Predict the structure.
Amino acid sequence: MVSSIRHSRNSRVKGSASRVSNSSDGASQRARSDAPSQSLNATEPIRSVQSAKQRGRKQGCLTKLKMPVRGRKVDLEPLGDTQFTYAGYRGYKYSTQVGVILKREYPGLVDDKDQNGVVLNTRPALEWADYFLTPKDKTGQTAGDRVLSEFWRLFQVRREVQQEADRVLENYVRKKVKDIFF
């Protein structure tokens, strides 16, 4: 007869004082610990072994716009068809800020209308062009206009590359709107 069996689970625990013994009365083998046993009080709630973490996201962390250093705009340079590179300052990411602006200005449902203004269909805004189908606000801007003006309020490029930067931003925002939903 085997006097003791060591399970692989017990051998993996470092510093474990548990051991398995063979009892002569036919009872099943049990792990014993040299530490005093801890009994649960029926009135106390069962607590997790890990520290209690707050679940979920922080309130408003994905829709809060981070402002650059007071009175300064972040310099960008167009790079390729859908990217920018930073000219000097690296602590402020344009991709995160564009995502926040797009989420904040999301138009929700848009109406497809015919030439007479009759609503044919109501659907969710899933493309960049849908941001321009929203009604204009008091200042005469659609959601798409507000996204672009907010971006250029935070960032700047040299005058020589402004048209190229507008084209790159248009391509980048078109891709980013599609990626928001995935």
Q: What stands out?
A: The chain has a mean pLDDT of 77.
